[in-house]
Specification:
about 375 residues, Rossmann fold, 2 domains, seven-stranded parallel beta sheet, 16 helices, 16 strands, binds uridine-diphosphate-N-acetylglucosamine
């Protein structure tokens, strides 16, 4: 069976790595038909920090095909990916196109493969925020409805798909590949020197600090919304310093809206002056990010994957959105949905930091055990016979 795996943006690399490792492991077993695989990098993310450092740390092989599509409007980016990916499909004639997550690369390649009669396997299927103003929600719905094999990470995803009329026999609940990567890499991550470099670990002891990531258009493209979030976080930073690896889009908007006052910018070391305790740094590598996140007292984010990672790391997470496609992190994990209202962010952060809002029943969501990729590859192997 020939599989073409697609990755385009930062969170995709983390999900693809365990799948490639599982394929390699499967192929090592004797007396079994082998998988042949190709890796496509669409080039949606191209900066060193958002792409190359992830390939290196996750020990991903160099892509067989690099499409180099770069940034652009949704239509421009999606169409460029489709045009280039179609050429790769003609050349490689795969049996299965494997797409992960919900980025533009996921949807673009799923559409191409589906129209060429190539079976589409979607990893992380069925997640729904029920908010169609998010580009990712559109990508999820379209990808799921043209996929032949839908691999889900939580039970509510199965329910969503069934409600939308997807036949049960296409849906496989396998667990969470992002957690496969976390489990494999957390020890390595905790050995990095990032906390020392940021001056957050002295004489072997970690300081108490917060961790912030922010990149959703709904949070960073409006000066009033972004200004409100920044003012709440500045307030919180008088209590604990906050490490803030800024996504290129967010860094651009902060400069454009003149919101950088009171935020320190440092490549390596943070000048922890009392008025500049939000420490903005370039995007962190995968291992550095895991290391900082696992040692943080509190995380503020609008990312999807970080809601899941903090649940496994048992670090309180304030999600700066009004909805989440990952409700299991609210019911079983450490996640609190706080939206982007500054007063609410401040109130809940203060309660969490005083230890007043610790969740009683934190459980590891079912099948988030580091073995999701193996389940997926075994199911695919079953389809080949
Ligand atoms: C994309 C995904 C989002 C995911 C995020 C993870 C979609 C619709 N969005 O959002 O779901 O959570 O990746 O990081 O697919 N840029 C750079 N360097 C890069 C890539 C982007 O500077 O390597 C800048 C460009 O100015 C670009 C902007 O970031 O216009 C946005 O990049 P894009 O890939 O379109 O979306 P993300 O916001 O990164």
């Amino acid at each position: 069976m020939k599989i073409i795996l697609v990755a385009g943006a930062r969170p995709n690399f983390v999900k693809i790595a365990p799948l490639i490792q599982a394929i390699k492991k499967y192929n090592r077993k004797k007396r079994r038909p082998k998988f042949k695989y190709f890796l496509v990098h669409t080039g949606q993310h191209y900066d060193y920090e958002l792409s190359h450092s992830f390939f290196r740390q996750l020990r991903l092989p160099d892509p067989d095909f690099y499409l180099g599509v770069g940034s652009g409007s949704h239509a421009v980016q999606t169409s460029k990916i489709m045009i280039e990916f179609e050429k790769v499909c003609f050349k490689t004639k795969p049996d299965i196109a494997m797409v992960v997550g919900d980025v533009n690369s996921t949807m673009a390649c799923a559409i191409v493969a589906s129209k060429l009669g190539i079976r589409v396997a979607h990893i992380e299927a069925g997640l729904r925020s029920f908010d169609r103003s998010m580009p990712e929600e559109i990508n999820r719905i379209i990808t799921d409805h043209i996929s032949d094999l839908l691999f889900t990470s939580c039970k509510d995803a199965n329910e969503n798909l069934i409600k939308e009329g997807i036949p049960k026999d296409k849906i496989h609940f396998v667990g969470n590949v992002m957690i496969d990567s976390l489990k494999k890499n957390i020890r390595l991550a905790q050995r990095t020197k990032i906390l020392e470099r940021l001056d957050l670990k002295k004489n072997g002891r970690n300081s108490r600090f917060g961790y912030l990531t922010l990149h959703r258009p709904s949070n960073v493209d409006d000066p009033v919304v972004l200004g409100g979030i920044v003012s709440a976080l500045k307030d919180i930073s008088s209590q604990i310093p906050i490490v803030f690896p800024a996504h290129p889009r967010t860094a651009k908007q902060l400069r454009k809206f003149a919101l950088l006052k009171g935020i320190s910018y440092s490549r390596v070391k943070a000048p922890l002056d009392e008025t500049q305790r939000i420490i903005m740094v370039p995007p962190l590598s995968y291992l550095d990010s895991l290391s900082v996140m696992s040692a943080a007292a509190i995380v503020f984010t609008d990312s999807g994957g970080i809601q899941e990672e903090t649940t496994i790391l048992r670090v309180p997470c304030l999600t700066l959105r009004n909805n989440t496609e990952r409700p299991v992190t609210l019911t079983e994990g450490t996640n609190f949905l706080v939206g982007n209202n500054p007063d609410k962010i401040l109130r809940i952060a203060r309660t969490v930091l005083c230890g007043g809002k610790a969740k009683k029943k934190i459980r590891r969501p079912t099948l988030w055990d580091g073995k999701a990729a193996h389940r997926i590859i075994n199911i695919l192997a079953g389809c080949a016979h």
